[in-house]
Amino acid sequence: MGEKQGRALVVGAGISGIRSALDLAETGCDVTLIDAAPHMGGVLSKLEYQFPSDGCGMCRLLPMADRDTCLQACLRKGLVHGGIDLMLSTTLKGLEGEAGKYRAILETEPSIIDPKLCTGCNRCSEVCPVTIPDPFNQGLSTTKAVHLPVPHAIPNIYTIDMDHCTLCGECETVCPFGAIYLPGEDRLELKIPRTLVEMDVGAVVLACGIDYYDPLSGVNTFGYKALKDVVSNIELERILSGTGPFNGSLKRPSDGQVPSRMAWIQCVGSRDLEFPACSSVCCMIALKEAVLVRKRSRQTIETVIYYMDMRCFSKEFEAYRRRAENEYGVILKRARPHSVRYDRNTGGLSLYITDDSGIRVDEMFDMVVLSLGQRPGKSVKELAEITGIGLNPLGFFEDPLSGEGDKTGVFAAGSASGLKDIGESVIHSSSASAMALKVIHGARSPHDEEREPLNGFRDVSTQVPDIGVILCQCANGPDIEPQVKSMGASDVHVSGVMAMDRICTREGWDGMLETLAEKTFNRILVLACTPQLFLDKKAAISKAVNLDPAYIDFADLGKGEPLAATVKMGLARIRYADRLNSRASAMVPTVLVVGGGLGGMTAALSVADTGFEAIIVEKESRLGGNLVWLEKDITGNDFGRLLDNTCRRVEKHPGIRVFTNAVVEDSRGGPGNYTTSLKTCDNDSKIIDHGAVILATGGREAETSAYGYGTSDAVMTHREVEQALKAGTMDPVNLNVVVMIQCVDSRNDSREYCSRICCKSSLKHALEMKRLNPELDVYVLYREMMSYGFSETYFKEAREKGVIFIRYSQELQPEVLSGTDGVMVKVHEPILDRTLEIRSDLVVLATGILPSVIKPLAALFDARVDDYSFFKAADSKWRPVDAVNGGVFACGLALGPRDAKESVASARAAAMGALRLISSKSAGVSLVTAGIKPSLCTLCERCIDSCVYGARTLDSDAGKIRIDPVACQGCGSCAAVCTNSASFLNNYLDQQMFEIIDAAI
Amino acid sequence: MDELLQLKTMLNPCIQCGTCTASCPNEVDMDLVPRKLWRMVLMDRHEAIFDSRTFILCSSCYLCTLRCPRGLPLTAAMARLKAIAAKRDLAKYRKSTRFYKSFMESVRRHGRVREGEFMGLYFLAMKNPLLPLSFASLGIQLMKKNKVAFELPAKPGIGNLDRLFKKVAEIEEAL
Predict the structure, then answer these.
(1) Answer CATH for A462-575 from 3.40.50.2300, 3.40.50.450, 3.30.479.30, 3.40.50.200
(2) In chain B, whose CA is at the least distance from the CA of A333?
(3) What are the CA-CA distances from residue A180 to residues A90, A107, A112, A156, A449 (Å)?
(4) What ipTM was reported for this prediction?
(5) pTM over 0.95
């Protein structure tokens, strides 16, 4: 155990686990990804639609560099990557050692169905006599005791629910592959020994996710399970899903009728006594579901969301809320129903609520959806004990602000440290993998050299195709050998068809390699079931026959595939298989970080800590950004110390170069290879080469002229209050009444987004002032308190300390009148329906966050800004910190409003993104990459406009279109727009596709 | 004012969600619905509070207390307001507060309520000679069915709850 380990263990194979595992695998680490469930995907395997696109986009997590190392298929089905070992039904049982040198004990549930033998033929399920509620559909439909845990998973391996299995043995007899071993002869002996594996790992990422509140655990006034039409939001997701209980049509569970009115009840199990925190994501989930229902029903189903505060706190959320209300007609009502009652006469569900006027109303619905809050995952506590990671008072993993100086090699990722939406989870997971990488870098895996690809294969690119077909046959499967042989005989390019006995077994596999080694085929087509899983075996075949893997392909003989079409399509595809001989130049192992605030410094440290070089460019004379004037955050983290520590580490780090008083002047190149010129203070130009760029340009508190700001000293902004409190020029003891006004110039038509941190700032200052002067009256005038997540506890604390919160609406804004003695604030109080006049000594304005101007800078690197002038991410959910072209990243306030902790996480995630790119070996070009035939090209440049990845440029000196093979993601847009077929997509050539289509029909 | 300050501290965590109002069976008759009343308490609108009849209409069904998402003791808060009104002997609530007092006085004396005595005590407390007349028709009906007997207020007898009442008074004093 003395050696530092290059392997990482990722616990939990949901979104966060997948992100972390891919991060680490792409940077060259070996990863073991485990999940307690018999399938991967976590909660996301059940969710089909994500806002803001109302679709899925999980495939955007797939690697962009070295794409061939990973199966390019829907990630909801499965993840197949050469560097990731996936172990399902496995839990972490013990961890010993120290960071970099852990020994992990993994326990795997005994598999009654052997995953190596099961082909997913469904015969066992057909004969199984036991019907159970389908856990995948939350019990809304039924399945058999032996069933597929997730219908779309690859590999499709059945599991047996041993709690319901009667051990009748039918499945065991019917299984053609002998994959099922039911326990013991006497059938009472259920204890099959669990397998324990010990493994040396360098770092552990815990991405075990969360659980949801169980309404049955409380008084259940909403009648969950007692009333059939009261469903949880996950159940509704299943109802809306195509693989759901009603095949995707929206029906209510009680009688299968289409509902005409649906209600969502927010904060079920959140923001209550037992759990004084906000679950952060339910508001957006409810909005998304309501929009989906409105879309599906062509706006015939009325949808009402009952909420306390509609927390649309992320950059694009407020716009989504507006669309939901204005375009789709989703009705939002601020009220808190306390119970759901069944109405005997109509069969409907009635809710008693009281609206702002105070009048009690009784509303009838056909279906009620409960937005269930979060609870710590069931394994969190055990994992905390095993790994020594701390828990917060609510039972989630602790999420320290900096984490520097900790000696641990165990990091929490994603929702395990508090519920997050997909975008935040992805950021947080990449942040965890960046920290894990810091621990294990340098001890890269011994397989590194094996992965050094593509040198010394025999050159077959000019040879006439000479195809060898391997047919995998099961003894019990249908005998298709004669058919395939006759198809092979009728194709002139096929020189041999060989039937093998089950290449999924070790003997079969070795037999195949031996047979192939004797032959000299220059193309090999393997016919087998679930060939997706053979991705990493391609390399083995390639080695055995000394052939570039580009010339080896698989065709799927799985269930339901028509044989003739499959074989002929496979032959047509392999005949044209080729690899472009263009070579990508090596990645420059340097990352340029623009901006030296907290985000920029953290990103640079994360890059440099893994052995690469980072260069910080800061336009001011000192590092620190906004941290310079901030004193502390709401949880009491001392920013002064954080700034000192971070600056000191940056200055001392040998891998970081800092240019202050410098700006970026110009840049050329693409992902992996940029050349950028900087202008330094003495008007010098400096040229640097770098592989990726991180924009950490930050933001600032917005200026305002509202509410008499600037005309009276008694009207200040939060920044001024923070500075005055820090400098000691303001003493709350001298104040009697303070009014804080939220959403100044924000969340209106001119600035749509919520700035997310102002509510926390107000709570922080209100609590701080109350602490210094308990007699002080503090009024907070708000539109929606965005105290999401664990900051809800401070909202509660502020109320308990006597801070008065008064809600105002966009239509009835407060007025501030400056007078001789202080200021008069007039505000309409909706509960009392009266206008209040508050004579106050101080008015504090929360003016929100504006980004620094980054549009010209982003344009230099071919990145864009969004409608609000923040950095535009490729996808707010799946690629939240990167630009479309994959070489530009952003973090901190440049990305959107966020607090210090979130900025640090985004900075690490951006660094991780850059590391993924620059640590790619990239000696060869991915198989599916665009190319160009200059002889046919008219230089019309349409392909350049069509390329979203910016991979195409016009080389006007040579009169040619150039393609950057690293940036190209093989989407095929260029091939589609080219009128002369000069642009083509390798392995998707026109002629090849025509022949494949011919073969298919 | 001290009692009201205490009440305010007790209700500080209120989030004005209105669950109390939506739960209240007597809400239709209240001039200030419970949610508004609590808002008034938090905003120190003492005149407005003691100008409304909300708390006196509370029938202590405890639904609001049961359902309050903040777990606030709202029924107890209503009772405190009632107690303050009784202590200050506010004219607006005399009908109710003296009714309660007379009832409890009879209970104290005999361990149970003696209807006749209770009525007598109430009429005496209200100091309105015409008041009995307004109850005349109900009274005659009840007497016909032997539900109420004429009884003059009597000295505490066997089964009186003096000790219990004393103890309660001590506890309340200590609060």
Answers:
(1) 3.40.50.2300
(2) B17
(3) 19, 20, 6, 15, 39
(4) 0.85
(5) no
